[in-house]
Design goal:
heterodimer, A: alpha+beta, Aldehyde Oxidoreductase, domain 3, five-stranded antiparallel beta sheet, four-stranded mixed beta sheet, 32% helix, B: five-stranded mixed beta sheet, 2 helices
Chain lengths: 161, 84
C-alpha cells in the first residue's frame, strides 16, 4: 500500500535542489524514479530571452499539485512517491524552474505518471511566467506554447479543467 | 444584504492594479463570480484581451463562471497559466 503522505510539494524562491528531490522520491519499493527538470531556455521561437519572472498563487497551486498526485495514484496505484517543487521569482537562463519526480516499482508507470504530472501542471497550476527579452521588452506568456508541446503526447487522464 | 470577497490578482491583472496582489469588492447576494471580471474589465479596458481566456477559482478550486459568490470567498482570476 502506497503512503500518500510520502508525497511532497513546494513552491519556493530558493534555487531547486536536484538531489533533494531525488532523495525525497527514493524508496526501497521503487524500481524506477523518473525525474523531470524544467529549465529556463535562452529563446522563445528564436527570440532571445534574458530572464524569466515567475508568479504563483501558492495555496491553489499546492492544491493542484495534490490533485495531480491523487490522480496519479488512481491511475497508477503502485506509485510510491510524487514530488513536485516549483520555483518562483526571477530565474536566469539555465536555472531550474520545476522538478517533478515519481517513484514507482516499474519504469513504464513512472514515465507515464511523471509526464501526466508535468503536463497537467502546465495546464492547470496557477503559475505564470513573464518573459524578459534581450531587446528590453517583456510579456506575460499568454498562449499555450507549452500546451502545444505536450499536445503531441496523450495524457491518460482528463485534466481537472 | 451585501457580501464581501477578496480577489487575488496575478500577472496582467496584478499589473493593471499597480502591482496590488489583492483587492476587496462588495456585491449583492447571489452574484456570480464572472461579475467580478465584468467589473474589472470596465475599470481596466486594457485587460479586454483576457476576457475569454480567464478562468475562475474560489477557495483554491476551479469553478464555473456562473458560480455564486459567498461572503468571505477568496476568488482568483486565472489568466492563461504558464508554469513549468
Amino acid at each position: 500500500m502506497s503512503l500518500a503522505n510520502a508525497d511532497q510539494f513546494k513552491i519556493t524562491l530558493a534555487p531547486l535542489e536536484l538531489e533533494e528531490v531525488y532523495r525525497l522520491a527514493d524508496n526501497p519499493g521503487n524500481g524506477a524514479i523518473v525525474l523531470m527538470s524544467g529549465t529556463v531556455r535562452n529563446n522563445t521561437d528564436g527570440k532571445g530571452v534574458r530572464f524569466l519572472e515567475y508568479q504563483a498563487y501558492e495555496p491553489m497551486a499546492i492544491a493542484i499539485f495534490q490533485n495531480i498526485a491523487q490522480n496519479i495514484r488512481r491511475e497508477w496505484p503502485a506509485t510510491n512517491q510524487v514530488i513536485i517543487h516549483h520555483r518562483i521569482g526571477r530565474l536566469q537562463i539555465g536555472e531550474i524552474s520545476v522538478l517533478v519526480a515519481v517513484g514507482c516499482p516499474h519504469r513504464g508507470e513512472a514515465f507515464a505518471a511523471c509526464q501526466y504530472a508535468i503536463d497537467t501542471l502546465k495546464h492547470n497550476a496557477p503559475i505564470w511566467k513573464k518573459e524578459h527579452w534581450v531587446d528590453g521588452s517583456s510579456q506575460w506568456v499568454s498562449i499555450g506554447a507549452c500546451e502545444e508541446d505536450s499536445g503531441k503526447t496523450k495524457t491518460p487522464l482528463r485534466s481537472e479543467k | 444584504m451585501m457580501i464581501q470577497v477578496k480577489i487575488k490578482l496575478f500577472a496582467a491583472y496584478q499589473e493593471a492594479y499597480n502591482n496590488q496582489s489583492e483587492i476587496e469588492l462588495t456585491f449583492p447576494e447571489n452574484t456570480p463570480v464572472n461579475r467580478i471580471l465584468t467589473q474589472i474589465l470596465a475599470e481596466h479596458p486594457e485587460l479586454e484581451k483576457w476576457r475569454d481566456v480567464t478562468r475562475f477559482g474560489i477557495n483554491y478550486q476551479f469553478v464555473e463562471p456562473e458560480t455564486v459568490l459567498q461572503d468571505g470567498d477568496e476568488v482568483v482570476l486565472i489568466p492563461p497559466v504558464s508554469g513549468g
